[in-house]
Amino acid sequence: MEYKYIIFNLRKNRSEEYSWDNLPDWFWSLFIDNLGKFGITKIGFERVVDQKDMDKSGLQDYLKEAGKLKYDPFHTRNESSIQGFYLTEQLKEKLKTIPLVYFNAIEEDLPFDEIIFFKDDSEKFLVVPYENFVMLKNFSESEYDILMSIDKRFIGNIDSFN
Predict the structure, then answer these.
(1) For a surface tag, which of 73, 129, 144, 145 has the fewest beta carbons within 10 Å of its beta carbon?
(2) pLDDT on residue 1
(3) Which pairing describes strands 3-8 and 158-161: parallel, antiparallel, or unpaired?
(4) pTM of the entire structure?
(5) Bridge partners, 11 (sequence order)
(6) pLDDT tens digits, residue range 110-126?
(7) Strands (DSSP E) found in the chain
């Protein structure tokens, strides 16, 4: 059976209430470093349908086109077609230098709100920085176990749904 999971970052504030917090930089770096354990080979960005859409992103020199990919955006029920790129080691290293919070369409040079990671042509991770979470799609129990073995801090910040 395959599951969907969501990794989020909640914290207790001084009044002992839970509140959203940004996913920390250590998480983003660790996440990028371990994508290979899940067979991730491609990346896409919301609303990016052509490489020229990324001309001001700072990532353009690291992108190699991998064809069109389909994914389900977070806020709509309609499948979208986006330009896919190969997830090279150089691109992974560059992604780690940009704090996750900066991946937001309000930033003039980053024309997207969602980052999508693919295993071949199948959507596996949907990163939504403005909502401070990562959605894990079509995860098997063994993949969940791999995730938990990467860092035990995930345990308190993960939930499942179908």
Answers:
(1) 145
(2) 43
(3) antiparallel
(4) 0.84
(5) 19
(6) 667 788 999 988 888 88
(7) 3-8, 10-12, 18-20, 42-45, 65-71, 80-86, 115-119, 122-128, 133-139, 158-161
